[in-house]
Amino acid sequence: MNVLGISGSVKQPSRTARIVSDVLASIETRTGLPAETIDLAVAAPILFRALRADQLDEAGRRIIDAVEGADVLVVGSPVYRASYTGALKHLFDLVDFRALQGKRVVLAATGGTPLHGLMLEHQFRPLFGFFGAVTVPTTVYAVEADFTDYTLSNPAVEARIERAVAELFDLLPAAAVAAGNHHQAPRAALREAVVN
C-alpha cells in the first residue's frame, strides 16, 4: 500500500503540514509502512513551471506520478479565501482525471475560526468526488489554538485523527492493507524531487 501525504500550505513551518504528518504517523503505526509527503511550500514553484500536464518537466512529472500512483492520500490545506490554496488546486489540475478513481483520501484543514471548517465539506470533498476518489467520512480540522508551537495539543483533534484513520482502514480492502509496498518506483523517484 502506497501512502502519500500532501500539504497544501505554501508556508514553513506549517500547522497544516503538521496535521498531515500526524495523520500519516497514525497510519504508519497501524501498518508499519512509511509514507512520503509532498510539501507545496517546496513543490509549488516546480509545478507552476507548467500550466498543463504536457508541459511538466522531469521534476514536476515525478511529483504528479507520485500522486497518481498513491493508493491512499492524506491531503491537507489551510483555508484560504474560503477554499483550499491555489497551489493545491494547481497540483490537482495537473493530475489525470482518471488517476484517483477509487483511491482512498483523508481530508484535513487548518483555519482561523471553527466556521472555516465548512470548507472541507463544501470545497474539498467535492474536488475528490470529481476524481471518483473515496473520502473517509471524518475530516480533521484544527484552528491555531489547537497547537502549541506548531505541535498539535488538542486531544479532541487527536481523537478525530484516530477516528479518520480507523474509517480509512474500514474502507480499504483487506488485501490492500496486507499487500505492503507495491509501488516502490514512484516513491523512490519522488524522494529525488520534493518530499519531507
Task: Describe this entry's structure for a reader.
With 196 residues, this protein is an alpha/beta fold. Helices cover 45% and strands 17% of the residues. It has eight helices and eight strands; from the N terminus they run βαβααβαβαββββααα. The strands form two sheets. Strands 1, 2, 3, 4, 5 and 6 form a six-stranded parallel beta sheet that branches. A two-stranded antiparallel ribbon has the order 7-8. Helix 1 links the parallel strand 1 and strand 2. Helix 1 crosses helix 6 and helix 3 packs antiparallel against helix 8. The longest helix has 17 residues. The two termini are 19 Å apart. About 5% of the residues have low confidence.
Provide a concise account of the structure shown.
The protein has 196 residues and is an alpha/beta fold. It has eight helices and eight strands. 45% of the residues lie in helices and 17% in strands.
Strand segment tally: 8
> Which runs of at least 5 residues are low in confidence (pLDDT < 50)?
181-189
Radius of gyration: 15 Å
Order of helices and strands: EHEHHEHEHEEEEHHH
Beta-strand proportion: 15-25%
**Structural class, please?**
alpha/beta
Helix content: 40-55%
Q: Counting H and I runs of at least 4 residues, what is the number of helices?
A: 8
Terminal CA distance reads: 19 Å
How would the global form be characterised? globular
Q: Overall mean pLDDT score?
A: 91
